[in-house]
Amino acid sequence: MKNPMLEAVSLVLEKLLLISNFKLFSSGAPGEDKARNTFYEINSFLRGDVLEVPRTHLTHYGIYLGDNRVAHMMPDILLALTEDKELTQKVVSNKRLILGVIGRVASIRVDTVEDFAYGADILVNHLDRALKKKALLNEEVARRAEKLLGMTPYSLLWNNCEHFVTYCRFGTAISPQADKFCENVKIIIRDQRSVLASAVLGLASIVCLGLASYTTLPAIFIPFCLWMAG
């Protein structure tokens, strides 16, 4: 049976991660102008290679399948609204992506290298060196990616594009990006100034909104939890 408290904490952490990286999903498509003029050395990619595209704060990952095809996990709210493949196969817009993250709806899909990178520089197999793990054979990596194509639940913390790629490449689904974010949250929680700040905000909400259950309970409960966690 799932723990409601753990689920609530997980949900809050995911939303914090989304907000902290909101620049990634700006109103314009990332690298829109650059994408039209970027040329990629596709012949240098091998089937099963991990392609890594740095963004403003996050990094997007995919598995190269050959023939200018990249398998990658993409949140997309449209998947929950229609089964029309002509619509869902189009390049995912930022609005579709953001709503997909919030709705936890995604798919492991295949796009061209150009659509995958959208004008950004591509790093190849950088995770091998960063994680210092032994990679599976490239053909096995590509086959794992192909078997997972289709709809999948999405979670910024527990099931994102990095989890997909590391599972295919190393046999274990991990996400250093999500782990780093959780460590930063732990540091904030352990800082006793967070307790003081939350207490001040709680008192301010009571003063501004009046003494009521929806103001008093958070004003007491949040600082208490932070104090105990610290």
TrEMBL record:
EC number: 2.3.1.135
Domain of life from the UniProt record: Eukaryota
GO annotation, cellular component aspect: endoplasmic reticulum membrane; multivesicular body; perinuclear region of cytoplasm; rough endoplasmic reticulum
GO terms classed as biological process: cellular response to leukemia inhibitory factor; lipid storage; positive regulation of lipid transport; response to bacterium; retinol metabolic process; visual perception; vitamin A metabolic process
Membrane topology: Single-pass membrane protein
Residue span(s) of domain LRAT: 50-177
Sequence intervals crossing the membrane: 196-229
Pfam family, one: LRAT
Catalytic activity reported: 1,2-diheptanoyl-sn-glycero-3-phosphocholine + all-trans-retinol--[retinol-binding protein] = all-trans-retinyl heptanoate + 2-heptanoyl-sn-glycero-3-phosphocholine + apo--[retinol-binding protein]; 1,2-dioctanoyl-sn-glycero-3-phosphocholine + all-trans-retinol--[retinol-binding protein] = 2-octanoyl-sn-glycero-3-phosphocholine + all-trans-retinyl octanoate + apo--[retinol-binding protein]; 1,2-didodecanoyl-sn-glycero-3-phosphocholine + all-trans-retinol--[retinol-binding protein] = 2-dodecanoyl-sn-glycero-3-phosphocholine + all-trans-retinyl dodecanoate + apo--[retinol-binding protein]; all-trans-retinol--[retinol-binding protein] + a 1,2-diacyl-sn-glycero-3-phosphocholine = apo--[retinol-binding protein] + an all-trans-retinyl ester + a 2-acyl-sn-glycero-3-phosphocholine
Pathway: Cofactor metabolism; retinol metabolism
Sorted UniProt keywords: Acyltransferase, Cytoplasm, Endoplasmic reticulum, Endosome, Lipid metabolism, Membrane, Sensory transduction, Transferase, Transmembrane, Transmembrane helix, Vision
One MF term in the entry's GO annotations: phosphatidylcholine-retinol O-acyltransferase activity
Primary location: cytoplasm
Active site per the UniProt annotation: 161
Subcellular location: Cytoplasm, Perinuclear region; Endoplasmic reticulum membrane; Endosome, Multivesicular body; Rough endoplasmic reticulum
Function: Transfers the acyl group from the sn-1 position of phosphatidylcholine to all-trans retinol, producing all-trans retinyl esters. Retinyl esters are storage forms of vitamin A. LRAT plays a critical role in vision. It provides the all-trans retinyl ester substrates for the isomerohydrolase which processes the esters into 11-cis-retinol in the retinal pigment epithelium; due to a membrane-associated alcohol dehydrogenase, 11 cis-retinol is oxidized and converted into 11-cis-retinaldehyde which is the chromophore for rhodopsin and the cone photopigments.
Stated family: Belongs to the H-rev107 family.
Protein name: Lecithin retinol acyltransferase
Species this protein is from: Physeter macrocephalus
